[in-house]
């Protein structure tokens, strides 16, 4: 038995999209197998999407399974890919996206898909991080970080040059630090000389560096503003996979903009480990 999928990516952050109506008894096992870049299709996650066309604008319910087989509350580039998938199927330029972190609005703007992100917080209880007050420029496991939740937890560190950092060495101790009861993503950023920032992110659930991370780009922008490192709007952020822009709308909520590409379609087999 097989199920069809569509492969999308947002600035290199890539996902298999499977319609939620497809019968997949063990979604986590499928994600672990097919996200593997050697033995599977290869992706940073699997999005299960349910389309509700009776609403105006249409709504899409998004559930993200990561390569470790667990769900994630939110993914900025995943939400943008889900929006593109839904807009292609409804012939619209706007959709609402229901995520585990809240409901978001997404719009097409030229070549970009723009999604309004969830409310962000530095509150230690909501991040969550074991601290009595917001963590700003504090050392955790040898890395000076500021901690924010932009739909998921990020520990953000500003460095002179992201390319000079051995991320696979410095990130895991922070990602698994005891002060993070649910773990954290680890994002590093360096000024690009033009008011923006270069980005690299080690993602929880992927357990490695990804070509792009939308919630990480937003984390860079909001922490940079909080620390007085920029007053730009939009803030240009450059992960390895492309260029993203983080703006702040009239409600003070961040928006994430960037291109989305439909790569190809295919089918995955529901093997016996998935069906067990």
TrEMBL record:
Its EC number is 5.1.1.7. The active site is at residues 75, 213. It is an enzyme of class 5 (isomerase). GO terms for biological process: lysine biosynthetic process via diaminopimelate. One of its GO terms (cellular component) is cytosol. InterPro entries: DAP_epimerase_DapF. It is found in: Cytoplasm. The record marks 154, 203 as: Could be important to modulate the pK values of the two catalytic cysteine residues. Substrate binds at residues 13, 66, 76-77, 185, 203-204, 214-215. Keywords: Amino-acid biosynthesis, Cytoplasm, Isomerase, Lysine biosynthesis. Pathway: Amino-acid biosynthesis; L-lysine biosynthesis via DAP pathway; DL-2,6-diaminopimelate from LL-2,6-diaminopimelate: step 1/1. It holds the Pfam family DAP_epimerase. One of its GO terms (molecular function) is diaminopimelate epimerase activity. It catalyses: (2S,6S)-2,6-diaminopimelate = meso-2,6-diaminopimelate. NCBIfam families: DapF. Belongs to the diaminopimelate epimerase family. Homodimer. HAMAP family: DAP_epimerase. Catalyzes the stereoinversion of LL-2,6-diaminopimelate (L,L-DAP) to meso-diaminopimelate (meso-DAP), a precursor of L-lysine. This is Diaminopimelate epimerase. The gene is dapF.
């Amino acid at each position: 038995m097989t199920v069809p999928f569509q492969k999308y990516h947002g600035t290199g952050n890539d996902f298999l999209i499977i319609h939620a109506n497809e019968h997949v008894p063990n979604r986590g096992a499928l994600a672990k197998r097919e996200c593997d870049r050697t033995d599977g299709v290869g992706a940073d996650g699997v999005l299960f999407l349910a389309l509700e066309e009776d609403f105006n604008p249409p709504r899409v319910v998004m559930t993200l399974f990561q390569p470790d087989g667990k769900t994630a509350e939110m993914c900025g580039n995943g939400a943008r890919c889900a929006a593109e998938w839904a807009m292609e199927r409804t012939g619209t330029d706007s959709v609402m996206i229901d995520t585990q972190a809240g409901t978001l609005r997404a719009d097409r703007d030229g070549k970009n898909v723009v999604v309004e992100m969830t409310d962000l917080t530095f509150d230690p209880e909501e991040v969550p991080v074991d601290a009595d007050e917001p963590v700003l420029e504090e050392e955790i496991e040898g890395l000076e970080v500021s901690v924010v939740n932009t739909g998921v937890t990020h520990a953000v560190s500003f460095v002179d040059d992201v390319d000079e950092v051995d991320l696979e060495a410095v990130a895991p101790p922070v990602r698994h630090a005891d002060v993070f009861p649910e773990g954290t993503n680890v994002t590093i950023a360096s000024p690009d000389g033009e008011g923006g920032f270069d980005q690299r992110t080690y993602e929880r659930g992927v357990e490695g560096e990804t070509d792009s991370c939308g919630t990480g780009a937003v984390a860079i922008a909001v922490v940079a503003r909080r620390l007085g490192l920029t007053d730009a709007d939009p803030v240009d952020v450059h992960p390895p996979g492309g260029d993203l822009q983080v703006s702040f709308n009239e409600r003070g909520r961040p928006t994430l903009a960037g291109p989305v590409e439909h790569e190809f379609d295919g089918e995955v087999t529901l093997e016996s480990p998935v069906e067990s």
